[in-house]
Amino acid sequence: MAMAFSLGTLNLPSSLICRSSSPTSSSSSKTSSLSLAFDAAYTKRAAELADKSAGFTAPHPNFGCVIATESADGEKVVVGEGYLYAQGTTPAELQAVEAAGERCRGATAYLNMEPSHCLVDQSAVSALVQAGVARVVIGIRHPLHHLRGKAIGAFRSEGLVVDVLGEDLHCKTVEEALKSCHLVNAPLLYRAACRVPFSVLKYAMTLDGKIAASSGHASWISSKMSRSRVFELRGRSDAVIVGGNTVRQDNPRLTARHGGGHLPQRIVMSKSLDLPEVANLWDVTEVPTMIATQRGAKRSFQKFLASKGVEVVEFEILNPKVVMEYLHDRGCLSVLWECGGTLAASALSSGIIHKVHAFVAPKIIGGKNAPSPVGELGMVEMTQALELIDVHYEQVGPDMLVSGFLQPVPDLTPVIPSVDETSAIDPTVSPYEASIIFFYKTWDPYGAFSNFSLHPMKMPDENGDIYMWPSVEHYYQAYKFAGIDDPTAKSCFEDIKNAKSPEEAARLGRRMQRQRPDLVRSDWESMKTSVMYEALKCKFSTYPNLTSMLLSTAGSVLVEASPHDLFWGGGRDGEGLNYLGRLLMQLRSELLRDSNASNTTLQKMENEVR
């Protein structure tokens, strides 16, 4: 359904001067302040839309799209909107086009971020081009190098006018819109620039700077409203990190508790594994828990944790930096630190904390030995203090929330020469030189190989009827329960089949498998690779560009880079079985044989003609 959105009357100061950076851009010197104000407002609206799924799905690149056109009376109105709900779901641009319909022709599309555009995923660009959109305004370029500038180039090659905030359009309101675009994808920008997940340190303290009484009692410092905000912060994160002392003192659950949606993994950092045998975090029925520890620590306790279903990851030297690098490799975009003062100080000293959320309660507890939010940092002069930037103050119930960045949000300006330009200069330079090709998240260079990628395919459902499955993961998870004559199993099959995203399908399937293993088909362990292969084969046969991409990897080893899935993935140190990579290489081999056989037949026919 099309949505109407009007800015109404805009009161712009007469002194506001807006300009374009180039006389050849669409926004030439004739562009009025009012026109640029509309551009800024609609792009900012796209950024607001992009944030709508936060807390309900795992963190992912946030895309929003607004399509606006002029009405008969000359007023600019929105005719279509959309946002990416989760990785592997319908692109924002396609949603907006479907909502706008014929009104797309000659309209302007506003995107908070350049869409993904590569050989195997051109849906966002194609949707806008085929709908007849005439102009595209983009907030920021895509921060990932293999996607950066690709969609912009594709739009321009199709004759669309493209303006990028901060490059083609400049004025105060544009700067404000650009800031919104940076903030909504801050996790992705930090990940691309710093090679670690976006890390937020959160704590609640009394007015005199204490996070607990001298006894260690800390329930509750902040108000119920503040704690609700913390649940929201958790829902926006891939993982929540605490130290061993927090487990011993508070026995936390670290759940999001917002009635559904994304539940972040709980992570405990403990060198010694001096942890209680009974703890809420060892219950992994709904939410997984990972323990990060030093290599060799308390082997017997590690076995105990493993028996509970808790993942244990050993590091040669345990510190916040190596854990963040590890979580980066696991595909994490955002991490929330809810630790005590000692671990907080270590994380701050490591330089991996990017933002701070401090809830200050109007209470005084006192106590010479009462703990503070941050332990020893080794600073002796006030000039050494860490200063927050872009600080915001917000009253939350009786508390005051002070938030700000320790490091500016990375502004990834265009890199020249780009990989494509370098390759044109020197053909021997290739972005994919390694003989091993890794893939994991759908936004990776080879992310289309993932079972989570958005490539709908027609395959039978439980009743044998042909159904358009949204992804390989939907099909795989549902078929765990295929053929089971039980109402719960049948209901689960349908729920997975209709899941809004591959992520949700995986969550539903895994949860039911944990809670009701009796409902999983008895031959699943022997059949699951066949089920996955059938789905992969259908996916690649449906999309010729995917087949071309797979064939282009001939001679390379394909590795699914999930560090924690030791069956489908390669594991952290190559200890995984990498069955997804193996199945793709098997499929590649079949496709190559078929291709060679076709070429041989064609050659014979040509020879006979001669």
UniProtKB/TrEMBL annotation:
Pathway as given in its UniProt record:
Cofactor biosynthesis; riboflavin biosynthesis; 5-amino-6-(D-ribitylamino)uracil from GTP: step 3/4
Entry keyword set: Multifunctional enzyme, NADP, Oxidoreductase
Q: Which domain of life is it from?
A: Eukaryota
Segments forming domain CMP/dCMP-type deaminase: 37-158
Asked whether the keyword Oxidoreductase is assigned, the reply is yes
**Known EC number:** 1.1.1.193
- What PANTHER family is this protein classified in? 2,5-DIAMINO-6-RIBOSYLAMINO-4(3H)-PYRIMIDINONE 5'-PHOSPHATE REDUCTASE, DIHYDROFOLATE REDUCTASE FAMILY PROTEIN (AFU_ORTHOLOGUE AFUA_8G06820)
Q: What's the name of the protein?
A: 5-amino-6-(5-phosphoribosylamino)uracil reductase
